Amino acid sequence: MKRKYKQTFSGLQRPSSPKDLSLEMKGLKIKYKPSQDDIDEIESWLVAEEQASHEGFYCNWSIILQSFEDKKAALLIVEEKAIGFITWFERDKVATIQIAEIKPEERKKGYGRYLAEHLFGKLLKKGFVVLDLHCQPARSEAVWKKLGFVRFTDTKGFESENSEEGRHLYRILIPSLKPTKALKLNETISLWDTEPYLAGDQARWKWHPKFQNGSRELKLPIIFPAKRDWQISWNKDGQVIKSEKIKYFRREGIDFSNYIIIEKLPLT
Predict the structure, then answer these.
(1) Reported pTM
(2) Percent of the chain having pLDDT more than 90?
(3) Element spanning 221, H or E
(4) How confident is the model over 181-204, as a mean pLDDT?
(5) How far apart are CA 76 and CA 26, in angstroms?
(6) Residue 3, CB half-sphere, CA atoms under 13 Å: how many?
(7) DSSP state at residue 236
(8) Among the listed residues 174, 187, 267, the one whose alpha carbon sits nearest the alpha carbon of residue 222
(9) Sheet architecture: strand order including 259-264
(10) Is the predicted pLDDT of residue 161 greater than 50, yes or no?
(11) Distance CA 28, CA 31 (A)
């Protein structure tokens, strides 16, 4: 019987002992265009793992294969053998990790971190600023946290993302503006974790954007997990410029699935 589709890491841990990874990693290659031999190699050890332990991701082979065809997979090659892979999909400025695994006998050597960080750097160069994923099985959460991922904000709206059955995590790839507790600011972005008709006077989060000289480009972007129906308000010099649901801020292009991403605030 086929097992339920899973999204997780398997075998992406830190090294079990403090080794010199600069030496251990020599000769490794990352491939984004796998050959048929590479694909066959991965399938063979996924099948072997399935037969030996009833674990691993061969149950998702059709999804993995589609990622290879879509060029949304990175392979780790050691001594001309494919010993690991990671797949993802993309939307706007957010990339979602789907499945990743290191061959069972090659684990706890730092290979997983090497593969993941290489991919994250590539996605950053392509313009992605947030990564997210679903920890399934739940025990993979600790592994992802070692790679810089964090839980979604503990608030109404993110109950499913924070469920014990398998949490969703995210990682912001670039420096971003942090919320402030300052009260008197000449320009603010305020965010409530509820719809406008339930929003009170006090926002849960507030940012004080600062701009590059002579422009309305933010020095540091605002990147934050948020639901599309939450209330957001933009105030300048005591005047409300815009105050409504996040999804209606499309003119400024801030609505990206489970996040607000604000890089500029044009006044016209």
Answers:
(1) 0.87
(2) 71
(3) strand 217-225
(4) 91
(5) 12
(6) 13
(7) E
(8) 174
(9) 217-225, 259-264, 255-256
(10) yes
(11) 10
The answer to whether 171 and 153 are in contact (CB under 8 A) is: no
Nearest to 86 by CA among 106, 104, 64: 64
- Residue 223's nearest CA partner among 91, 151, 129 is 129
Select from 33, 38, 42, 30 the least CA-distant residue to 119.
Answer: 30
Place of tokens 């399935």: 50
Every domain of the chain with CATH number 3.40.630.30 lies at: 8-172
Report the pLDDT averaged over residues 238-263.
Answer: 90
Spell out the residues 6+ positions from residue 48 whose beta carbon is closer than 8 angstroms to its own. Answer: none
Q: What is the C-alpha separation between 135 and 165, in angstroms, rounded?
A: 9
For 192, the token pair is 């409530």
Tell me if 169 sits within 8 A of 135, measured CB to CB.
yes
Tens of pLDDT, residue by residue over 1-55, are 333 334 455 555 433 333 444 435 567 899 999 999 999 999 999 999 999 999 9
CA distance 263 to 96: 21
Residue range 8-172 in CATH 3.40.630.30 = yes
Q: What are 107-134's pLDDT values in tens digits? A: 989 999 999 999 999 999 999 999 999 9
> What is the C-alpha end-to-end distance of the chain, expressed in Å?
58
